[in-house]
Design a protein that fits this description.
The structure holds 2 protein chains of 2 kinds. By secondary structure, chain A is of the alpha+beta class. Chain A has helices at 19-33, 63-73; strands at 9-12, 41-46, 49-55. In chain B, β4 and β5 (39-46) form a beta hairpin. Classes of the chains: A alpha+beta, B alpha+beta.
Chain lengths: 74, 244
């Protein structure tokens, strides 16, 4: 698969890295480290090894639903 | 069946395509448009509960789907690996409608530019004490620690100065910025700049001139990106509701 960023400027004077490598590294930096995260957990794996675990303790629920859950537990 | 989520936008005319061919998502999956409230979300149906593996193709596919709508609008990208049930996604969007709208207002008409500045100097620049050879192992250990701390402090100070210099150079064209200093020994500054689309050419020109002023530094400049760095609304949520 070719890079989706054919029109994207990637300029670098860092030696040893090919343009394609830089493009991929920059893409990984953006898509893996940044962006919206939905409540829940994301475990990202590379070659079956869990590398990044994002755990969020954010409750997305209406107060009424939360109360109902609590009432049902009782 | 769960959904893999790529991005959220205000409205989209239709499904994204590149040269009239539909853009394919993770693992070659079809990309669908899901409308929730006033928003349009790009999603794919996804088998399984856990995030897809990070492979070159998957990462590029995620990025390609998000980038495919950048000409039409500025989306809020989701982080790679976002897999949710449709009702959970609807609940998320509905519950955070106002925060998402505010975030879309912030990034409207803008793109993200990324600048990484790498130091040309070496840690070895911090002088070693001459008398180290004559010291015992404990003193040598402490001296080495001292040398490391001095080096770290020096790098940190240099990084602050370089970040301030960068801001001075391109600040006119930057609407918002996120800067990390000294993430690694060599990486002094990693800056993400939110730039209005019509200012991108001027921003690049200014950056090109600035680079010539600092030949001792190495620059890695990339963009325009969808605003990955400026999409998260976690902070607003924490501030508003006092949770983390």
């Amino acid at each position: 698969m070719s890079s989706p960023f054919d029109q994207m400027l990637i300029e670098s004077d860092v030696e040893q890295l090919e343009q394609a490598d830089l493009s991929l590294l920059e893409t990984l930096d953006h898509v893996l480290n940044r962006g919206l995260v939905i409540a829940g957990e994301i475990t990202i794996s590379v070659a079956d090894i869990d590398l990044i675990f994002v755990g969020l303790n954010i409750l997305v629920s209406s107060v009424e639903t939360a109360n109902e859950v609590v009432r049902n537990r009782k | 069946m769960k959904l893999y989520v790529y991005c959220l936008a205000e409205k989209l005319g239709g499904l994204p395509s590149i040269h009239a061919a539909p853009v394919l998502g993770i693992s070659g999956a079809q990309v669908d448009l899901l409308k929730v409230e006033d928003f349009a979300l790009l999603v794919s149906e996804f088998d399984g509960d856990s995030a897809p593996s990070v492979t070159r193709d998957n990462a590029l596919a995620h990025a390609a789907v998000v980038a495919s709508v950048l000409n039409e609008t500025t989306p809020l990208p989701f982080r790679f690996g976002t897999v949710v049930a449709e009702d959970q996604l609807r609940s998320y969007v509905t519950a955070r409608r106002e925060a998402l709208k505010a975030k879309l207002d912030q990034v409207r008409g803008c793109v993200e530019m990324s600048v990484k500045i790498i130091s040309g100097s070496d840690q070895a620049d911090v002088p070693q004490l001459n008398e180290m050879d004559e010291q015992g192992p404990g003193a040598r250990f402490l001296n080495e620690k001292r040398r490391q701390i001095l080096g770290s402090e020096r790098r940190s100070e240099e990084a602050k100065q370089v970040a301030a210099w960068l801001k001075e150079q391109v600040g006119t064209y930057v609407q918002q910025e996120e800067v990390s200093l000294s993430q690694t020994e060599k990486l002094m500054v990693a800056a993400a700049h939110l730039v209005a689309r019509e200012q991108v050419a001027k921003y690049r020109d200014q950056l090109t001139m600035a680079r010539k002023m600092r030949p001792e530094l190495h620059f890695l400049v990339s963009g325009p990106w969808p605003p990955y760095t400026f999409s998260n609304i976690e902070l607003e949520f924490k501030t508003r509701f006092g949770v983390s």
